[in-house]
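#data-curation
PF: Archiving a pair of folding outputs for the training set. Convention for this channel: one message per protein, sequence first, structure tokens after, nothing in between. First:
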Amino acid sequence: MQEKLKREIITTADGSTTIHLPALNEQYHSKHGAINEAKHVFIKEGLHTILDTDDFEILHILEIGFGTGLNALITYLEGEKRNQNICYVGVEAYPVVFDEVKLMNYPVILNASNKEIVFDKMHQSVWEIPNSISSNFELTKRKQFFTDIDDENTFNLIYFDAFGARVQPELWTVEIFSKMYDALKTKGVLVTYSAKGSVRRAMQEVGFEVERLPGPPGKREMLRATKS
């Protein structure tokens, strides 16, 4: 169980921190830069891509692996820039404790120290119910195993940020991607840092149109999948 494994705070190549699990030789974000990875995979190739091609009164986002809250924080900041209303759902089976959250330096590295109170509010908000983080950002955190997700036709965008297939192969299967496909609205998009052939084939098997894209620092490629 991840929650029982020894956990260390490490600094990644762009100066941002993340949580490392020595027993698994795995961390929550890329050692090549936690923020750089998040901005490239989930913001540039996910959030920006769909906002630049369509208008949304409310953008509905599902994050698979809420973790340290980095993707949620950057999405919040991007939503502020664009005055975009966002309804954000983060699913996490093993929530990060607040003592660990306070060791994450994201607001400082993002030049958003004045938003540290927002980052704290995200982590201190009540689980399982919608929380108003700001006038245009609503956050719902669900303590849930990914196999129990049963949303249908709900989200415009999915950030698929689970631990890698080497560590948890059961999270990168046809069964899981079928749930992701069902959860998305038509023309909805899923982005992930993974580019494994088995992952791409699982996505295609459930009906996704899949693109290989240039990856973040330290990775040659990533995947973006669209529900037709």
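PF: Second:
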Amino acid sequence: MSENADPFAPQPPEVYRRRRIVALLILVLIVLLIIGLISWLFGRGSGSSDTSAAASASASSSQKTEAFSDFSQRATASASASESASASASAEPTESASATASQEASPEASASPSASAEPTESASPSAEPTQAALVACTAADLKISLTADRTSYAAGQSPALAVSYTNTSGNPCIVTGGANNVDINITSGPAQVYNYAQCNQLAAENAELAAGASQTAAVSWNRTINALGCNSTLPIQPGYYWATASVNGVNSQPVRIIVTG
């Protein structure tokens, strides 16, 4: 082709074909460059995200390490055995020392109660209840019996009566007025004849009657009738009479007295 050829004149088909191939190659290069650029951009972004993820993972691991930095490592079997042995070794002297201390203190502790008990035991037999702490003898405490020196009395014979009273309980009690509290009451049928305490009231102190102890009081009847007054000298008539003894208000069984003359 000459230099003076018209550039706008129609070209041969081979020229158009070469131009299309060149244009296609340029288009392919441009596409490849665009794809490479996009891949590079995405690769850079993923690298930064991986770096940040790695940084956050390392930060979290460091936080976990710091959070558990105060915890001690789990003891191994050998360490546990050594600790148990050291603990038992340290406990044995303490136990032996406490046992020794208790043995040393036990004689004194055992001696202390016996020492305190001795005065009590020695004082118990000799200690006696005071009269203020005692109560008056009652029917539950006393047994009263009355006896006469004879079964019958002739003229000029006065009945002699004996009153015995026994404390049958296990505790001492008080007889009010002592032996002067003994009374004799004599009747003939329903009629009152004689009462000893009515005309023989003597002042006397209370008397303690020990458990199981007995006392006896003697009373003589002069065969007068004092139901009419203590100054009466009216003698009784022959007949049957009943006498009853009383101590602290507790009565005996009646005893029959026969007066024949």
